[in-house]
Design goal:
By secondary structure, this protein is of the alpha+beta class. The chain folds into 4 domains: about 160 residues, no CATH class; about 120 residues, ATP-grasp fold, B domain (D-amino Acid Aminotransferase, Chain A, domain 1); about 100 residues, no CATH class; about 100 residues, Alpha-Beta Plaits, CATH 3.30.70. The chain contains 16 helices and 20 strands.
Length: about 525
């Protein structure tokens, strides 16, 4: 028997209170309906459906402020426009500020097999016209007429769903008010994606991780944890302090034990660490301060763990998914490109991960995915590792779970949409529709002050003039994202697709060379 309930309109204040048992019950009913869509609608690209794209970064505002041009990161979900290649799919894209028409045109012209004019007729762009720092979903909820407009644009609630960057109580409330399911993890499970929750899942999955402590609540507990790690391992040089809800490595800080006086008791070490913390803690975020960091830690908590050392070190990740039928899958692997003072800030990625260890990363990722599936997780997530080569073997340490779409999500899905192929579990490679492997190098952090002089149209002209634009016939080339951040922040993202890892990286190098040539500026990351 199909579960139903009446959907109130935004004209009447009949919504259940946010977080109330009634809202949770309605949300659970909607989520169960997603399984039917997955089984009956998703497999057939010719069936009508509506996808509401909600690129809200519903994260801690203090952490978001650390990212240059962060409000343009909503544009990373513009890859969803590729869904319009399905000829009866309607897309409702919601953003804080209007997206420049030229940027929308850029993506629509990438659509394989569908005229852009046909796609545009099935695309509805809705803007809150609000550039404030509050999450996009909050902006939508604060505008009941806008909620009503979105709902009116959905022709059939039974064949519609929301896709989002991450799912919090805000996205759950909006799903209930629109009367459609959320293809993302239930916010009640979001703790599984925190730094502490990640370590607990790794422990349950039997995955190796750095020695450390979770569920710490303030800097006194951080000092005690650091002291205990040093007592356990007298040769320990560095340890990492991580904010519970930090992301992209910007919430991390490193503590060095170099020059610590000879001590034997834990109490002595703890007192020394506590006294040294304010001056020795080195933050990955350039704008971070001790007072702000310690205050934020007291607010959200965090973990402390051993800094993984190694002469040959990489940071692979496994991208996983639990589909609406509850089936866990590993859908790709990447090697992350990291920067920052100690190499912990996400800058970009290469696909796939190194052939030497990608199968190991797939297996470890699957163990985590199986645990999360048992817990009821839904949707995409990433599992990050730090890997060190010792002799001829690589040893992998699980670092964190990103229970959301991450920096590796949009480049992979863009590759998938552009080449219409699939991930090979056997080889760990992506095979296009023609059966040929494709590789890429992607970055969100191509940055130069001189690039601020470029408009989105300038960027597109440069790409075409220098033959960097993605070519459907060869299935190679460059796709830009974060284009809206270019003029104000001198920042843009790139996805460079080639028929070999070397070709993909060569396209990246050529892109940087061309941008620098056109602007007369040396590139910095």
């Amino acid at each position: 028997m199909t579960e139903v309930f009446s959907i109130p309109t935004a004209d009447h204040v009949l919504w259940p209170e946010a977080g109330s048992p009634e809202e949770l019950e309605r949300f659970a009913v909607l989520q169960r309906s997603l399984t039917r869509q997955f089984e009956q609608i998703f497999p057939d690209p010719l069936l009508p459906r509506t996808v509401v794209v909600l690129p809200s970064l519903s994260l801690h505002p203090d952490e978001l402020r650390k990212v240059s041009g962060v409000h343009h990161y909503e544009e990373r979900l513009l890859f969803a426009l590729m869904l319009l290649r399905m000829p009866r799919t309607k897309l409702i894209l919601i953003t804080s500020q209007p997206i420049a028409p030229g940027i929308i045109d850029y993506y629509l012209h990438l659509l394989p097999g569908v005229p852009s004019v046909h796609a545009r007729e099935r695309l509805l762009l809705i803007s809150c016209h609000d550039s404030s720092e509050i999450p996009l979903t909050r902006k939508v909820l604060d505008r009941p007429r806008l909620v009503n407009r979105i709902q009116d644009a959905i022709e059939d609630l039974g064949s519609a769903h929301i896709t989002c960057f991450n799912a919090t109580e805000l996205e759950r409330t909006l799903a209930v008010r629109l009367g459609i399911p959320l293809y993302a993890c239930d916010p009640l499970l979001e703790d599984l994606g925190t730094k502490s929750g990640s370590r607990e899942v790794f422990r349950e999955a039997g995955i190796v991780m750095p020695d450390g402590f979770e569920r710490l609540s303030d800097m006194d507990e951080v000092a005690a944890a650091l002291a205990e790690l040093k007592a356990r391992n007298p040769d320990l040089h560095r340890a990492v302090v991580k904010l519970e809800e930090g992301f992209s490595g910007e919430g991390n800080a490193v503590f060095r034990f170099d020059g610590m006086p000879a001590m034997t008791s834990s109490a002595e070490i703890t007192r020394w660490v506590a006294g040294e913390l304010p001056s020795r803690l080195r933050f990955e975020a350039k704008t971070e301060t001790w007072d702000h960091y310690s205050s934020t830690f007291a607010e959200m908590g965090g973990i402390v763990e051993v800094f993984v050392e190694g002469a040959m070190k990489k940071s692979p990740s496994a991208q996983c998914r639990v589909n609406p039928a509850g089936v866990p899958q590993v859908i790709s692997t990447h090697d992350q490109v990291l920067g920052g003072p100690s190499g912990q800030v996400f800058m970009g990625c290469t696909f796939p991960a190194d052939a030497v260890y990608r199968k190991d990363v797939q297996r470890a990722g699957m163990k985590v995915a199986e645990v999360l599936a048992e817990r009821g997780v839904l949707g995409r997530f990433g599992v990050d590792f730090v890997s060190v080569r010792e002799g001829s073997r690589w040893h992998h340490n699980a670092i964190e779970i990103n229970l959301r779409k991450g920096g590796t999500t949009h480049p992979y899905l863009m590759l998938d949409f552009l080449t219409d192929g699939g991930f090979s579990q056997e080889t760990g490679e992506y095979l296009s529709s023609s059966g040929l492997p494709r590789y890429y190098y992607a970055s969100d952090n191509v940055v130069s002050d001189k690039y601020k002089g470029l408009t989105p149209r300038d960027l597109i002209d440069i790409a075409v003039d220098h033959k960097l634009h993605f070519h459907g016939a060869t299935q190679e080339g460059v796709v830009f994202h974060l284009i809206g951040a270019l003029s104000q922040f001198g920042k843009v993202g790139v996805l460079c697709i080639g028929d070999s890892p070397g070709r993909a990286h060569a396209l990246y190098d050529e892109t940087i060379r061309v941008l620098d040539l056109e602007t007369g500026e040396s590139h910095t990351v």
